[in-house]
Structures are given as C-alpha cells and as structure tokens.
Amino acid sequence: MRSGLISEHGFLADGRSAALVDRGGSVNWWCPERFDGPSVFGRLLDDDAGGHWSIHPADGHHSERSYLDDTLVLRTVFHTDGGAVAVTDALALDPDARGHDIGRRSPGVLARVVEGLYGEVSMRMDYRPRFEYGRVTAYLVGRGDTVEATAGAARLRLRGEADLHCDDGTSTAAFTVRAGEVRRFTLGYAPTYSGDVPPTPDADAVLADASAGWRSWADLHDYQGLYREQVRRSAMVVQGMTYAPSGAVVAAPTTSLPEQIGGDRNYDYRFVWVRDFSLTLQALWRAACPDEANRQFAWVSRAMGLIGDEPVPIMYGVEGERDLTEHALDHLRGYADSRPVLVGNDAWRQRQNDVLGEVLDAAWLMRHYLDPMDDEVRHLLRALADQAARVWREPDAGMWEARDADRHYVSSKVQCWTALDRAVRFGSRIGDAADVDRWAAARDEVRETVLRRGFDERVGAFTGAFDSAELDASVLIMPLVGFLPATDPRFRSTMDAIQRRLGHDGLVRRWEGDPAGFLICSFWLVGCLASAGETDRATLLFEQVAGRTNDLGLLAEQIDPGDGEQVGNFPQAFSHIGLINAAGQLTDAQRQPVPTGAGPRKGAGA
Q1: Which of 77, 199, 400, 595 has the fewest CB within 10 Å, making it most exposed?
Q2: What is the pTM of this model?
C-alpha cells in the first residue's frame, strides 16, 4: 500500500520548508524546520511509520483542486452524495511580508480551512505526527481545542475547531459541515528547547497573508513570452523551492522518491547543486525575476569561498554546508517499497568538472550586475578558470553522477570549454593578459579535442564519453552554451540520433537503458530544435512534454514512458527550469527566425 501517486500531490512552501498534500486531503510530507530537516509527516515514504495529517469526507467522494490565482495556496473541493466542501491549505508566510521579502522569517505554521459549499458533509480528521522520519511517536496531550506533541528536538501544537480525541499517538475528530459553515485548523512547529511555544495563529489570517504574499511576489514578475501561464507557474514553483534566508534553490523538497518503482536509485535531493545554478539563473531571467537571480549568484559566491587546487564542491546544504554524508533510514519501506530511503547525498564527494562552466556562465549572464566586481568574486572566477585549464583532461563522474567509475564525459569537457570561453570574455576584469592568453589556448585545445574524440562517425553523433559509441542526452547542452551551432551538420545528426534512439512520445532518456524520460533532456532538445530553426518540431515537442504536468502544473524529475506516471523527487526544480528556458528559447526563435544554414545567434559564443 502507498499514499497515492507522486503526481497526485500538491506543493506548499513558506521559504524554509515544503509540504506535500495529496488529492485525498492528506499531508504526506512536511519537514518544518527547513527543507533538509527531519520530517514530522513522512507517509510518502512509509504508509504506516511515516505519519500524516488528513482531512476529508468520511464517506465516498471525488475531488478537484487548484491553486488560488498566483499563489501556492491550495484549494481542494470534495464532492459527495450529500454535498460539497472545500479544504484550503497553506504554509504561513511572514505576516505582512511582501514581494522579495516573503519567506525570510516564516513562522513554521500549516493552516487548513474547511468550508461547506452546499448540502451537508460528514468529515473526518486523522492526525498522526511521527518525528525524526517516523522513528519517534510523540505522546499527544489534548487541552481543550489543542493537542500538544513533543518528542526529541521537535514540538508541535495543533489547534482545531472540532472535538479532538487523542489515543496512542493519534488524534482524530469527526464533524459535520453544512453550507456556509467553516472549521479552522492550525498546526505550529517550534524546536523543543527554544523556549518558544509553537504558534497557532488564526487560520483565516494565515491564508490571507499567504495569498497576499505570493501575489505580491508574482506582481513583480512580468514574463511576456510564449506559454506565459506555464512559465509563471513554474517560476513560482522554483521560488517555492528557494530557501529564503540564503537564496539557495533546492533541487527538490523530497528525498528517495524513486527513479524507477522498485529500483534503488532513490536519492536525497533537498540540497543545492552548482550544476543547476546557471540554468536556474537563466530561468529566473527568462521569467523576469532578476532580483532572485542576483541573490542566487551572491549565495554561490559565499558558499564556494576560497578555491584552491582541490576539486570544486558540486553541491551544498541550503546554508552552504559541504558535508552531506549519506545514510539509509532502514526503518522506512520507501515509496511503493522502493528502498533504500536515504538522508544526505554522497555525490558531494565527487569530481564533476562541468560545474566550472556553470558558475562562469552564470557570472557572464550577470556581468552587468558584477560591475564593479568585488575582489572575492574576481578571485573565484579566476580560480575556476584556472582549474578548468588544469583539469579538463581528467575524467570525472559527469552530470548524471555515475557512482561506478569516472569517465571522459563529453558534456564535462564542453562545460570546461564554457568556463574558459567566459573567462576569456571577461578578460582583464578577472585576469591579466597572460591569464587570458593561457585560457584562450586551453579553450581552443578543449574544442579541438571534443570535436575529434567526442563525435563518433559510426553512430553519426556526439556520444556520451570520448571514444564511446553510447549516446547520452547531456551533449544537448552544446548549442545551449554556444560550443557549436545547432545548425552544424554534426549536431543535427546528433539531435536526430538522440530523438530516434533515446526518445519516446516526446520523452528523452539520458542514455540507452535509462528506465524513464528525463524531463530536462526533453526541454534541452526543444531549445536545440528552436536554435536550429526547426520551430514546428520544437513547438510540438514542448507541448507534448509541458502537457505532462499534473493538474496543478507540477513536474517530477522523470516520466515513465510505459504508463506515463511521474517518478523521481517532486516537484523537481530542474524540470521547471527546463520548461521556463525552453519556452524562452521558442519565444526567441519566433521573434528572430534562424535562416536555413545560419550559424549560432549573436552572442552564442561558437
């Protein structure tokens, strides 16, 4: 048994943490302290041990749901034979905080309001907090309209307009809602030893503040390109995955949702990957979010610190932590019995040379905001360029974070080229004349080597690694970073080979044998086709892929090509970033068509 499909969940956020609520009104995931903190509701990973908080009709029903316009406030309407009710859910934002300030001091409150729409509906509430990822069952104490739960480092306080009964770590309530009646429930969190009482503010006020806060943020961003509503929703999802105190964007708010049901590639994604950095910045620019882009660059500059000869860290905790050592939670069965369930991610130990290009590419994108350039930023960019010139010949784990052996991945070499190319463009702003000459020589050597060893004549395509015949969708970044125009015959044949051998019904797998379509690869292909002037193919592909969001516009990391179900951690920033950038690339192609046989667009850097 499991708590519903991954894609049946809605996403709530408050700038520090996230909650997932399924179509049946059950909160199945919440780590109230921060994204990567221990859960108090973890039913997503174990129906019995994980814990949840559900509010739903006691008898048969069906539901429909949507976000309130321009918010992450979720409204689910339940229809029964006797009537209908709406349950509206939100994580509280700072009271009265607006615009770019939302989420920086969020109180750690989850509010739920039940409203009778017509008729009469019998409702049931089931509250089963399980602390420390389900390891600890708290003793619940009822006091009037509140229930206190304290165990270990966490403390929860539930206040509700119902008769709350407590028994064996569970609180339940049964109540009836008629047309026009409202029942309010508020759940607050506080660290046990902070001395603070978990807040339980008025639920109506929480919903009003959350709605106003999200709308004030949305009002600052006015994307005018194609697929406007999808881009605006995806931008809000990315903002919802932003840890507001630092500005860092997590890859996803969940851990261990499997890439393949029953498989063991179940990783913790509640961290910040440098790889995602440049694409995140591009997406925020595309979605008209320049202030968020500025905060992103400031965060990565602080997190990286002084760069020496050691490999650049490829990921961090939301406040810049580097040690993200991985361990298994053996007491949890995993989503759909897919083990292991992991906390932490040992990819932090890997060498991934592509991150050098991602940071320098992001800096080039932000160049007008880096003038004048701080000394620490100048040192960082120069050190990254020097490292690219020094290590590009070395094998690495690649962007798919292979855990078996390092290889000479083509995409890693291309991103080393990107690092050196952007460093040369920065020129005297980050290095002296000798530095620039050295970077330019290394850049040209990388390019020559990739063109010679990365293209396989037998396959008719750029392949995943040097001297390999195996395709890998990561090479689709080539025209996106300006390494090679999408109109180049070698790259056109690469696109055709990837679409033919890795593609299925619009989905693009990372490699042959990959069990599911990796959504950002599909969006990369959209961008490549658009850059090649093939806007009809690009548009068709975009609409095939973007049409696979759930009813709330949310995307996981991957989609199973067999049954069409979303798999992997959810929602996935990489997928929403891919959607935003692909929509922007289609907009560019519509406004500036590429003539047949044309080279890259101005500024593409080929």
Answers
A1: 595
A2: 0.94
pLDDT of residue 278: 75
**Alpha-carbon distances of 350 from 116, 346, 353, 390, 398, rounded to whole Å:** 54, 8, 9, 17, 9
Contact at 8 Å (CB) between 246 and 301?
Answer: no
Q: What is the DSSP string of 496-514?
A: HHHHHHTEETTEE-SBTT-
Cβ(523)–Cβ(545) below 8 Å:
yes
DSSP string, 476-499: GHHHHTTSS-TTSHHHHHHHHHHH
Q: How many whole angstroms separate alpha carbon 45 and alpha carbon 336?
A: 8
Q: How far apart are the first and last CA of the chain?
A: 53
Three-class secondary structure of residue 193 per DSSP: helix
State the average pLDDT over residues 589-600.
59
Q: Kindly report the backbone phi and psi dihedral angles of residue 53, in degrees, each rounded to the nearest multiple of 5, phi listed first.
A: -140, 110
Cα–Cα distance, 420 to 447 (Å, whole number): 11
Rounded to whole angstroms, how far apart are CA atoms 477 and 414? 8
Q: Which residues contact 231 (CB under 8 A, 6 or more apart)?
A: 223, 225, 286, 287, 579, 580, 583, 584
For 429-457, the DSSP string reads GTS-HHHHHHHHHHHHHHHHHHHHHSEET
Total Cβ atoms within 10 A of residue 174: 12
| pLDDT recorded at residue 605 | 31
Q: Which residues contact 228 (CB under 8 A, 6 or more apart)?
A: none
| Helix (H) or strand (E) run with residue 106 in it | none
Instruction: Find out whether 315 and 347 touch, Cβ atoms under 8 Å.
Output: yes
Buried b (16+ CB within 10 A) or exposed e, 446-468: bbebbeebbbbeebebbbbbbeb
Domains of the chain and any CATH numbers: 6-197 (2.70.98.50)
Q: In angstroms, rounded to a whole number, what is the distance separating the alpha carbons of residues 166 and 158? A: 12
Q: Strands 62-67 and 74-79, how do they pair?
A: antiparallel
Cβ–Cβ under 8 Å, residues 82 and 90: no
What torsion, rounded to 10 degrees, do the Cα atoms 571, 517, 314, 283 define? -60
Of 221, 226, 235, whose CA–CA distance to 589 is shortest? 226
Distance set, CA 510 to CA 1, 18, 518 (Å): 30, 28, 6
Closest Cα partner for 293 from 549, 50, 509, 577?
Answer: 577
C-alpha 9/C-alpha 22 separation (Å) is 4
Report residue 241: phi and psi, to 5°: -95, 15
What DSSP character marks residue 423?
Answer: H
Q: Taking 60 as the threshold, does the pLDDT of residue 586 lie above it?
A: yes
d(CA 506, CA 547): 10
Residue with the bigger pLDDT between 302 and 336: it is 336
In this structure, the chain runs to a length of: 606
Question: In angstroms, what CA-CA distances link 414 with 348, 398, 444, 453, 522?
Answer: 21, 11, 11, 12, 19
Contact present, 579 and 523 (Cβ < 8 Å): yes
Find the angle CA(80)-CA(84)-CA(88) to the nearest 5 degrees: 125
CA distance 463 to 456: 7
